[in-house]
Write the structure tokens for this entry.
Amino acid sequence: MLSVEGLEVRYAHRDGALRAVDGVDLTVGRGETVGLVGESGCGKSTLGKAILRLVEPIGGRVAIDGVDVAGLKGDRLLAFRRRVQFVFQDPYASLNPRRTIGEILDGALAVHRLGDRPTRRHRVREILDRVGLPADAVDRLPHEFSGGQRQRIGIARALVLSPDLIVLDEPVSALDVSIQAQILNLLVDLKREFGLAYLFVSHDLSVVRYIADRVLVMYLGRIVECADHHVLFGEPRHPYTRALVDAVPLPDPRRPRAAIVAGDIPSAARPPSGCRFHPRCPLAIGRCADEVPSMREIAPGHAVACHLA
Amino acid sequence: MAEHAGRAAAVPRGARLRLSPRLRRTLGRLAVNPTAWLGFAILGTVIGLAAFAPVLFPGDPLDMVAEPFVRPFVALAHPLGTDSLGRDVAAGIVHGARASLLVGFVAALVGTLVGTAIGAVAGYRGGLVDDLLVRLTELFQTIPSFIFLVVLVAIVPPKAVWVALAIGIVSWPTVARLVRAEFRSLRRRDFVLAARSVGHSASHIVLREILPNALPAIIVTGSVMVASAILLESALSFLGMGDPDVVSWGAMIGSGREQLRTAWYLTALPGAAIVVTVLALNLVGDALNDALNPRLEDR
């Protein structure tokens, strides 16, 4: 349903252009949950925002059911916005402090001319109930709610338009662990009930492992590995993925682990030559510094960008 | 059926509740602030005097009603004395409050509206539009505002409303810079991105999402602008460039300055009226700033 090819986003930076997203390909099928993982600053949030044109990409193509999203205007842009929604990481910053929950949700329906006032009011109550918020929330302001409830409001805002795809940008990482589980369960239930597709962006592998059908691993603006979730967690092939998988805390700490990746993620303004991971890679060979590895399919549905895989 | 009735009843309640928690908290914070009380009390008195001027002192305050240079607190009919032409000083001050407040509020309104519109467009659009509007604002700011005002007033008819418009025109750049800065920071916030992702238009985002969040800062600046507009109007009238058909505090000071050594009260009394009014407006501005400051919101 969603296909992204060669997407590029750059930010102006004092050292020149910062390549936040540098040639990313991905697809999300109808009803599929795709996890997108990577360290902070690898460009995964920017990628999510670029798909919705909240950040304008400078290159590549985003298409929904084959229709190119770039250059959409007016009613056609509106139609695209109804189909693809976004849930933000920070439930405190993503709700206007001066609008009531009712205004926020009704406003979304009103722009898309979905029903008259009573119909919309009914729909708002239905959605609030579905995400587990009390009906009197419509008249209240965001600051009257807890973090978890606010994230439910953010989900309600995305859901109220009955989209086909929701891009979730770290939707639980600002929440307490107990609340995280509630929100994740809600997301799983909603997906089943409404046949939603998710692009689930997160730095937390245990969360992605719980929710995603297929996982993409991103490093410094590029996808380095892509596989079904049990394959990726069972037999990761890229050294970076292996390090990430092994860095997840386990119930049994005596289990042997691969070397922990040292150092910080380099600046996207001056990415390393060749394979971008080579300065931190425990297995790097001479070729890694010179030649950019391309994505190769090593098994059906499992692609890796590494010379050694 | 019962559910229907409940839903219908909830609508007006919702409309009231929407404003009240925040407004109630703002008013509550004002109520416990002695500065606010003092400011609003003085301002209320001045507005009251201006409103009831024709009742308190009927007739034209520019009429000669007694012999000149009656000193204050001597004659009961003229409690604050008379000037060199035998005009009643008390009547002049009370009627003068009308001119000062009218010019002050109209000028502040004009300046705030123009400044907000320009600042909002510049801050929200950014890029070339922003560059052009910032240059325009700087152009207005580099001209000394009082000289510019004198030039404007020399061009327009000498009527109080025109003077007010002229003052508004020289004072919008301050508001424009403030509003631009607010919009620049607010437009990057997640809730603005969220409004875009939902499909809201630019005008909805500017007017309904960003502006309400910039409003406290605009209100505070506006209240202080009233005070500075009153000062500008007084300075103009002092120079004899105000509306000659209307008494104003600045004009009273201007006409009394020649008798400064013999009849000091002719300048001191209208001067005190300006000081007290401007002080009251600044106190109100400070109190509003404290009450509307979002950083104090969750205390």
In short: The longest strand of chain A covers residues 16-28. The domain at 2-95+157-304 of chain A is CATH 3.40.50.300 (Rossmann fold). The radius of gyration of chain A is 20 Å. Chain A has one domain: 2-95+157-304.
